[in-house]
Amino acid sequence: MNMSLSLSLARAREKFFSGQSLPEGLVPAPILRSWQRCAEQGLDAGDRFSAEPMTANELRQLQQQNEALRLISRPELSTLRAEAKNTSSVVILTDANGTLLDVVGNAEFAGEAARVALQPGVAWAEQSTGTNAIGTALAERRAIAVHGAEHFFEPHGILHCAASPIFDPFGKLAGVLDMSGHASTEHTHALGLVRLAVEQIEHRFFAKGFEDKTIVRFHKATDMLGTPREGVLVFDGERLVAGNRRALNLLRLERLSFRKTQREDLFDALSENLRSVSGDSFAARILRPHEKADRRLYSARTVVRDAAPYLTSEAEVALTKALRLIDAEIPVLITGETGTGKEVFARHLARLSSRGGKPFVAVNCAALPESLIESELFGYEPGAFTGARKDGAKGLVHQAEGGILFLDEIGDMPLTLQSRLLRVLQDKEVSPLGGGQARKADFVAICATNRDLRAMVEAGQFRSDLYFRIAQFTVRLPSVSELANRRALIEALWTGTNTDNGPLPEAVLDRLESHDWPGNFRELVNCLKTTAALAGAGRRVTLSDLPNHIHAPTRVAAVAASEGNLGALTETAMRRAVDLHRGNLSAAARALGIDRSTLYRRLVWAGKAH
Questions:
Q1: In a domain, 23, yes or no
Q2: 418 or 373: which carries more pLDDT confidence?
Q3: What is the pLDDT of residue 291?
Q4: Is residue 219 in some structural domain?
Q5: Tell me, what's the pLDDT at 15?
Q6: Parallel, antiparallel, or unpaired for β 474-476 and 332-335?
Q7: Both 221 and 272 in a single domain?
């Protein structure tokens, strides 16, 4: 915030807290409304806010009660964590009352934030914490940014916070997603990133749980179907029972319409060419309960994930040995840099083994919060904790019965859980939380990591007995930069992921081969997909179709980008790039060869247009 705005805000605070009326526009209307609510509740801005965090047991119970929200939000927390680390910020997930459930991001700032009670187990509702992005987003039921002195309590002036409420499919508040950092740092894109992340979360709510209902996915643009930009409505027979914000906006409905509206009140009939009673036309996909359609939203990602890996001769030899060990029920460890295809290799190994066709259950040990990982892995008995399902839950270990349990990022598993995992691997018995009877478990573990586990053992950060149990045989996957014949790799991946643009020309292959690919196979595959999207269906790829980080932009392209005239770079291509990079705007912008702020502005502008 610049000096003039800071002085203006200081004058506004002085006038407000001395009882004077404020000129219109001196502070944003939502902030002024929040100040007024806080004053009416008797809060004193000069007081030092203090909050008593929950006990560890109380926090665990609260997190378990919100287990579904935490699980469905995990991909966005993981994506935004990288952005938060780069901007000295933290990403926060709260429950519907504004109580913090998870805080991830920049560890140094997280320590400072804890001094103003920005930590799990503390409620940041407006009535107790004054004006702040989390509490005010809940009160206003809208996304909002609160900067510095806009906070009601003076100690919170060190913060810049951007938050958006999360609504479940039935229109009820489920929680809040927030990004908070130093007020002294520019956070230009924080609110936009949070809004996009919440859109992804709310879209994912509809992935399951409505199998016995009719789901209508629609948008004015066909290319938006299957993306978080589509409208989603759920009908129980002819009655509207659920939907997302995008659908409500497209049809100009309120959340109160749920269970009070019939299909005929909205559409003439349900078809792929959908027409509303007000005369608007939409492209649509209708999924009815009796249809055996594939309900996976991310089929493209699934295809890539399940594809056979590109193997060097050394990896082929290692694969043969690993197969013998899996068939002998001996764990295998896969190592390699991020993006080298460890999970793809593990799935390929599982398919070729005697356990092919049996369950393959993947667990990301880094993504599972410590408070959840034990119940996730081993399950729990009915009544094991507050909020537990009445019938209990089967753990991931038992879900892998007869097949493979893939423990990714095993180096990030908490030490306290490592000893229990070791016992399960040795005894092949699992005792669920809550004191249930131990049950036999038939599975083989494949573990993966990008960390040096031996060094972690020496540093006391990883149990030596577990290491020697899982690392009897190690497969190391090379980075792309280590491969002697990158050209063959690029051609193989292009052929495997693209059949519509013909082979890559020599000039394009030369340029791709010369790139160092720090993101390894993941970066390369995403680059090839982005290139195909930019080239367009059925058109031969040229050098100009490559993302700009692969080659220097031409003068025309540079001028066009600087002037905001991106020409052939359509909204569809931008959305595809964002989807390919799982919502990571920075990575998508790099792949497209444009500045992140440019991508963000275009997406926001396009969203308003729709």
A1: no
A2: 418
A3: 54
A4: yes
A5: 85
A6: parallel
A7: yes
Phi, psi of 274 (to 5 degrees): -85, 135
pLDDT in tens, 256-301: 899 999 999 999 889 888 999 999 999 999 988 855 333 332 222 3
Fill in the amino acid letter for 184.
S
* H helix or E strand, kind and range, residue 470: helix 464-470
352 touches 465 (CB < 8 A): no
Q: Tell me what the mean pLDDT of segment 166-194 comes to.
A: 89
| End-of-domain residue from the set 459, 476, 493 | 476
On whether residue 25 sits in a domain, the answer given is no
Q: Domain check: are 229 and 83 in the same one? A: no
Pair 413, 556 in one domain: no
Q: Indicate whether 259 and 378 sit together in one domain.
A: no
278 and 353: one domain? Answer: no
Do 448 and 339 meet the contact criterion of CB atoms below 8 Å apart? no
Q: What is the CATH number of the domain that holds 144?
A: 3.30.450.40
536 and 567 both lie in a single domain: yes
In a domain, 13, yes or no: no
Which letter, b or e, does each residue of 29-68 get, where b requires 16 or more Cβ atoms within 10 Å of its Cβ? ebbbebbebbbeeebebeeebeeeebeeeebbbbbbbbbe
- Number of domains, the chain: 4
CA distance 386 to 242: 27
Domain edge (last residue) among 205, 228, 246: 205
User: By the 8 A CB rule, do 336 and 342 touch?
Assistant: yes
Question: Could you tell me the pTM of the whole model?
Answer: 0.53
3-state secondary structure 183-194: CCCCCCCHHHHH
Distance (Å, whole) CA 503 – CA 542:
11
What's the CATH code of the domain at 349?
A: 3.40.50.300
Output the pLDDT for position 579: 66
CB 201 within 8 A of CB 582: no
Q: What is the pLDDT of residue 308?
A: 58
Among 62, 70, 111, smallest CA distance to 93 is for 70
CA-nearest of 104, 100, 188, 191 to 142 is 191
> CB neighbours of 62 closer than 8 A, spacing ≥ 6?
54, 95, 99, 101, 121
The residues, any chain, with a CB within 8 Å of residue 297's CB and separated by 6 or more, are: 203, 204, 207, 226
603 or 189, greater pLDDT: 189
Q: 563 is in which domain, residue-wise?
A: 482-609
Q: Residue 230 above 80 pLDDT?
A: yes
Pairing of strands 231-236, 214-219: antiparallel
Please indicate, yes or no, whether residues 167 and 233 belong to a single structural domain of this protein.
Answer: no
Q: Max alpha carbon distance in the chain (Å)?
A: 80
Give pLDDT, residue 292. Answer: 36
Residues 22-76: tens digit of each pLDDT: 767 778 899 999 999 999 988 988 776 667 778 888 988 898 889 889 988 887 8
Q: What average pLDDT is seen over the chain? A: 81
Q: Is the dihedral of CA 121, 127, 133, 134 positive or negative?
A: positive
Whether 494 and 462 map to the same domain: the answer is no
Give residue-wise pLDDT tens across range 294-314: 333 222 233 333 445 667 767
Q: Which long-range contacts (CB under 8 A, 24 or more apart) does 587-591 make?
A: 587/526, 590/547, 590/549, 591/526, 591/527, 591/530, 591/547, 591/549
